Amino acid sequence: VLDAAGLDDAAMQRIAADLGYSETAFLFPRDNEPNVYDVRYFAPLQEVPFCGHATIASGVALVERRPAAELVFHTPAGLVTVNTGRTDAGFVAELTSVSPRVRAAPPGLLPAVLQALGWRADDLDPDYPVRLANAGSEHLVLVTRTRERLADLDYDFDALATLMQDHGLVTVLLVWPEGRRLFHARNPFAGSGVVEDPATGAAAAAFGGYLRD
User: Using one digit for the tens of pLDDT, what is the confidence trace for 126-139?
Assistant: First the structure.
């Protein structure tokens, strides 16, 4: 929603629920500040602090209407810049997230999440420790040893949703490393009412911080 002026929280939540997308971005242009916006993101069940793919989509939608090399988004997670350009294939956009941070998961969270997922502790790759990673929104990073475990995703939606809401998790980031530079990822998003997020720049940025650490 490229100009959400006049929409209150209830209206934005209702629109996001009606659309049913993983997230809907609501943009508020700043007076006398060209290409600067306040942005909020709503999933079907709740507001989330940041969403990467909705940020990229918003950037492209804006520059399709009025070209701009850089956009500035003030999000609940912090300042995010979006650089845009035109290629033979169309417009492209690239975001710079807030600084990632990585920390240990609280006691008891991992076994509860594994139970909800139907995973076992020995499904996890010991080379990649379990961590919480955040580049605007919180993600629990679980790296599995096998592609088969990642592919077979059939989890207890209600149990995982409750855990995610209790711990402020936007997604659970499930990863299989094909190599040191190529990773396959899936993102249960139950806490916000979505079985699986098809693509999440917020989790990708958080995972970059995780790998750097």
Answer: 999 999 999 999 99
Q: Are strands 138-143 and 171-177 parallel, antiparallel or unpaired?
A: parallel
Number of neighbouring beta carbons within 10 Å of residue 113: 23
Residues in the chain: 213
Per-residue pLDDT reduced to its tens digit, 102-127: 999 999 999 999 999 999 999 999 99
- Amino acid at residue number 141: V
With beta carbons less than 8 A apart as the criterion, state whether 23 and 54 touch.
Answer: yes
Residue 107 CB burial class (10 angstroms; 0-12, 13-18, ≥19): exposed
